[in-house]
């Protein structure tokens, strides 16, 4: 009889624990590893001067900068750049939700609602833009819209010099613009 009672009690304990497991909520972790986990330093309100051969070519600021790869790569949040010419004249600005600046390759990449504005009023919008500081070229391999006043040009992928005077659309090029024809 004692053996039956012990078996019955053991069965009740197992049933109670199974019931308790069914009622408990399972916690799931949705966030994966973050760049902050591997950063050597985290800078808030970061400020960095972009220079080529000792000449300042831009002024980069970000809300947050994660310093990586022996202080050669900066993963930026809410990045803003003021670009200047070799003589210090303003050329334009770039804003991006996220950016990466690599001091080894001297490239600055912007992601997420990248907005470039030149001093003559032209604007460029794209999900991703790359600026090569050595060659002074701006490029993208994704969609873009380039506007000036009411004229606009769209496409997928482009390459350009930093002043946008030598602009080349790579594919699906189109746009809306006015064209003046000479009178005879």
Describe the model.
With 184 residues, this protein is mainly beta. The protein has a domain at 58-176: lipopolysaccharide transport protein A fold, CATH 2.60.450.10. The protein is 14% helix and 58% strand. The chain has helices at residues 2-23, 35-38; strands spanning 41-52, 55-68, 73-84, 90-102, 107-118, 123-132, 137-148, 151-161, 167-176. A nine-stranded antiparallel sheet has the order 1-2-3-4-5-6-7-8-9. Strand 3 (73-84) and strand 4 (90-102) form a beta hairpin. It is globular, with a radius of gyration of 28 Å. It starts with a helix and ends in an 8-residue tail after the last strand. Mean pLDDT is 84; it is low at 8-21.
Shape category: globular
| Order of strands in the sheet with most strands | 1-2-3-4-5-6-7-8-9
Q: What is the multimeric organization of the chains shown?
A: single chain
Rg over C-alpha atoms, rounded to the nearest angstrom:
28 Å
Largest sheet: 9 strands, antiparallel
What structural class is derived from the secondary structure elements?
mainly beta
The name of the CATH topology of the domain at 58-176 is: lipopolysaccharide transport protein A fold
Number of strands: 9
Task: Give the helices and strands as they follow along the chain.
Answer: HHEEEEEEEEE
* Helix share, percent: 10-25%
Question: How much of the sequence is in beta strands?
Answer: over 45%
Overall residue-averaged pLDDT value: 84
Query: In CATH terms, what is the architecture of the domain at 58-176?
Result: Sandwich
- Kindly provide the name of the CATH class of the domain at 58-176: Mainly Beta
Query: Which stretches are low in confidence, meaning pLDDT under 50 for 5 or more residues running?
Result: 8-21
**What is the number of helical segments per DSSP (H or I, 4+ residues)?**
2
CATH superfamily of the domain at 58-176: Lipopolysaccharide (LPS) transport protein A like domain
Distance between the termini: 118 Å
């Amino acid at each position: 009889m004692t053996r039956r009672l012990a078996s019955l009690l053991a069965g009740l304990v197992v049933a109670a624990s199974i019931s308790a497991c069914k009622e408990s909520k399972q916690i799931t972790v949705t966030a994966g590893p973050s760049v902050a986990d591997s950063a050597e330093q985290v800078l808030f309100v970061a400020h960095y001067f972009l220079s080529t051969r000792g000449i300042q070519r831009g002024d980069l600021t970000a809300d947050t900068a994660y310093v990586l790869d022996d202080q050669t790569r900066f993963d930026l949040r809410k990045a803003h750049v003021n670009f200047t010419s070799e003589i210090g004249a303003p050329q334009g600005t770039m804003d991006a939700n996220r950016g990466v600046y690599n001091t080894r390759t001297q490239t600055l990449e912007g992601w997420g609602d990248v907005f470039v504005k030149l001093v003559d009023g032209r604007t460029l919008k794209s999900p991703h833009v790359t600026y090569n500081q050595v060659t002074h070229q701006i490029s993208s391999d994704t969609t873009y819209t380039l506007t000036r006043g009411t004229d606009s040009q769209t496409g997928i992928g482009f390459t350009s010099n930093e002043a946008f005077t030598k602009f080349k659309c790579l594919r699906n090029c189109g746009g809306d613009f006015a064209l003046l024809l000479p009178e005879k």
